[in-house]
Amino acid sequence: MNWGKGIILAMGLFISFIVVLIVIFFSNRIDLVSENYYEQEISYESEILARQNWQQSQSEVAFELGEEHLSVKLPEIEGVTSYKLELYRPNDIEKDLLFEINDTKTFLIDRKQLEPGQYEYKIRAAGNGKEYLNSGKYYVK
Fold it and tell me: What gap in Å lies between CA 16 and CA 10, rounded to an integer?
């Protein structure tokens, strides 16, 4: 084999490698956490205050994964009777879940609704003129 054929072969392999990378990158789904991201960033200071209110209440959320349900145990915060639980799936926006929880401190989510993997959760509550926010990550096995 001479130099000309080697260079052509090397260029062909390199171009094939680049095409395969492009196909792999464009076949993966990447969704934004929120469609109105910029609007949420404008109101971020109120989110910071809500997080501080949750920390001051010294309340904890407990998740327990059973065979049939995910149990969410919400804290007792004075003046709060309803909560909003948002479960985000970072790799697929179609699997996000939103729950309105009223007048209960233990909430069950059917395991069939949850796929194995990482979820990011946000729990919002309001009462006594204050807003509360807690967030974190939870892994479903």
Answer: 10
